[in-house]
Recover the amino acids of this structure.
């Protein structure tokens, strides 16, 4: 789940624990126009990406996992229980925004 840093600039830190099979790469998939690069860096068993956030109330995102053969798959952020209702993607909210419509506990019941 992204951690928001409070300062004049709004930033978020995304993390993903290393997974079985050791991904060759992890990238943030989003559609709000974040500045490149969006590739995570692996350090001490954790993939991490810090990004500057634009002035938006929320953003939907996925993690794109690349294996050693170049195959890519997207997954929701396993550390973020917030999900968008229509597409089941994690949602990062600005601090002043209310919780999303659907929580993870309701997601598991729907699966």
């Amino acid at each position: 789940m992204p951690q928001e840093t409070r300062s004049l600039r709004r930033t978020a830190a995304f993390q993903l624990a290393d997974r079985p099979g050791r991904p060759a790469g992890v990238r943030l998939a989003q559609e709000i126009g974040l500045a490149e690069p969006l590739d995570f860096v692996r350090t001490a068993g954790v993939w991490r990406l810090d990004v500057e956030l634009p002035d938006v109330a929320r953003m939907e995102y996925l993690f794109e996992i690349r294996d050693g053969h170049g195959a890519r798959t997207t997954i929701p952020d396993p550390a973020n229980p917030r999900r968008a209702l229509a597409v089941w993607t994690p949602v990062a909210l600005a601090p002043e925004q209310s919780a999303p419509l659907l929580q993870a506990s309701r997601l598991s019941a729907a699966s």
In short: The longest strand covers residues 58-66. Helices lie at 104-110.
